[in-house]
Amino acid sequence: MFRKRADKPSSENRNTVKVQRTKDDTLKSEPIKKALPKPKLNLNRFKNRTTIGIACIILAFLIVFGLSPLINKAAKAQTVIVRVEKDIEAGQRVTADKIEKVTVGGYNLPGNVAKRAEDVVGKYAIAGLKPGDYILSSKISSDPFFNNPYLYNLPEGKVAISVSLKSLASGLSGKLQNGDIVSLIAIGGNNGKKEAVRLPELEYVEVLAVTTKKGSDSNQQNQGESTEDQDIPATVILSVNPIQALKLAEYEENGKLHATLVSRGNEEKKQMLLAAQESIFSQSPEGKEGTASGE
Fold first, then answer.
1. How far is CA 131 from the centre of its chain?
2. Do the bridges between strand 181-188 and strand 140-141 make them parallel or antiparallel, or are there none, so unpaired?
């Protein structure tokens, strides 16, 4: 009938519980604190930055107040040089009327630029020079080799011979050029009767140069000159073998030659034609004599 009353916790139990709660509360409310190391100042780093900054400032002062005036002074310096006034072809002799003296800034000027006209006049252009070009010592030479380079490098077994162009028509109206392959037609005869003959041994011949009555190459005349002032071609220089040279000398004295253009500007075809011409002379000596005198 009667319910048993729950036993009250004894005072010891109460104290024990309180102590446990107190311990739990203390553990929860007081987190563990670790001692952090104190930051250290790296004075060396600041010293390095300061040193670099000071060095940059000093360098800037040197550039602004030291180098800049020197550069400006050099840029403003003026000097007289020799410059091309008219076209000068490769191999052509430099004359006083083709150059001029001008005053230019000396800064960044090539060390081998010509500054005196006497150092240039009378020499030969190694390469073509155009108006406005500075004349450098590397572009001119006192060696006349550069005036007629084709005469210094003749192939083995070849000679150079000059024959007359006795009329404008006989030389393709003055249009022949270096490197052309031409076929020569001979005109001659006896008792007043003339006939044209095509010569097998002169079927394909290379032109080395076309010259005027003054002996200068026709391609070295000033382009600015009028047609009246320019000399018409008078002779043609050919690259031939000794047998061909004999035939040409014969017709130079006793007849007349006409040049007909076969090939121009085609190196492959040029070599093929020259090889075909040489094949005629690869026969026996008897065959060569018969070909050379078989007119």
1. 18
2. unpaired
pLDDT of residue 194: 80
Three-state secondary structure call for residue 85: coil
Encoded tokens for 270? 């040029």
How many residues are present in the chain?
Answer: 295
Which of residues 219 and 95 earns the better pLDDT score? Answer: 95
Structure tokens at 53: 């900054």
Residue 79: pLDDT band by 50, 70, 90 thresholds? confident
Q: pTM to 2 decimals?
A: 0.51
Check if the beta carbon of residue 165 is closer than 8 Å to that of residue 187.
Answer: no
Short-list 287, 198, 176, 192, CA closest to 251: 198
d(CA 211, CA 162): 9
- Cβ neighbour number for residue 204 with a 10 Å cutoff: 20
Separation between Cα atoms, residue 243 and residue 291, nearest integer Å: 10
Tokens standing for residue 237:
């220089």
Domains and CATH numbers, the chain: 78-146 (3.90.1210.10), 149-292 (no CATH)
C-alpha span between 225 and 246 (Å, rounded)? 37
